[in-house]
Description:
This protein is an alpha/beta fold. The chain has two domains: 14-57 and 204-345, 3-Layer(aba) Sandwich (Rossmann fold); 87-197, Rossmann fold (3-Layer(aba) Sandwich), CATH 3.40.50. Helix content is 33%, strand content 21%. It has helices spanning 37-46, 63-72, 86-95, 110-118, 144-157, 180-191, 204-212, 220-223, 233-243, 257-262, 316-330, 341-345, and strands spanning 20-23, 30-31, 34-35, 51-56, 83-85, 103-107, 122-124, 133-136, 161-163, 169-172, 175-178, 196-197, 226-230, 246-250, 271-273, 287-289, 292-295, 298-303, 306-311. Helix 3 (86-95) crosses helix 7 and helix 5 (144-157) crosses helix 6 (180-191). The radius of gyration is 21 Å and the shape is globular. The two termini are 35 Å apart. The structure holds magnesium ion. Magnesium ion binds at residues 24, 26-28, 230-232, 253.
Amino acid sequence: MLWKKPKENNPEPLIATFDVLLVDLDGVVYAGERPISSAIEALTRAKESKTTAFVTNNASRTDVQVAELLQRLGLPWVNENLVVTSPQAAVRMLKKLVEAPANILVVGGDGVVDELQKAGYTPVRDADENPEAVIQGFHREVGWKDLAEAAYAIQNLGIPWIATNQDWTIPQERGIAPGNGTLVSAVHTAVGILAEVAGKPEIPIFHQALERFGITPENEDSKSRVLVVGDRLDTDIRGAGNTGLESLLVLTGIDGPKQILAATGNDRPTYIVDSLQELFEPYPQLQVSGNTYISGDARVRLVGDDIVIDNPGSKHTDLVRAASALIWESGRQIYGFNIPELLYSRQPKIDL
Ligand SMILES: [Mg+2]
């Protein structure tokens, strides 16, 4: 499958094409505890003319708590209406299955409990309290007993089980820690069925966001005015692709050139930038001539199985844009190519 390509011959700044930005948090707005200053400036400029909203898989905080975090990091204009969370998407799914005020077994913390209460449900913690569904989200206090109660409820009562997200890891100050996906997997091991998943890269969280900002998911025209901004191919970018939205990968977080070149299907971003400041510049037009791909002054060419760099160009990201387009449009698998190390060895610099 090809990818959702950049619009052709667009002399306008990249952002001009869009009305709504759906922005990831970690690796985009901040890295660990530190704000990414280029992103703070760019998002503050963007919100003057665009709906600039935030979409997070992390279920441990409420929308209000996420807004407060963003305010502290230098985005004082963010309120909870601009924050879309995976518990909100999970409760949206729940409403289609179970009517309030049903008891809902919670594995997780404030983020899940708060959304359930707002929707009129009754959060419970024990499988003996007649829950009619299980919602499981990340919280650092989740323990064996919570996982066991979820397992009992799912296997004994046959009730729906919704996971806010399935992220395998969660970045913490002291390192990479096991994410919600590992805890969902623990329950899965006990019950033998799979959870329904609300968060990225699944579609419900994006539909939650589109609905909030007045975009009809069935209307391709209005969807084309939405840009998903993220740092991970397997959540942000894949989720955008799954939902039929254009996406922008910013190289301030997890994924870099190596992952981009090897990306398949919906993991391929429409746009690749070093910093969100590039939203205010025209995106370089990709030029293709036979086997030669050009972005900016970077030029690559396919010769047999070899990717040959004719000109590395003045900006490494242009080289990655040209080479990834070449590889993706070839329809061939990444391991069929000989790829010069220069293309993928450089790690993106985080612009703090
Ligand atoms: Mg991220």
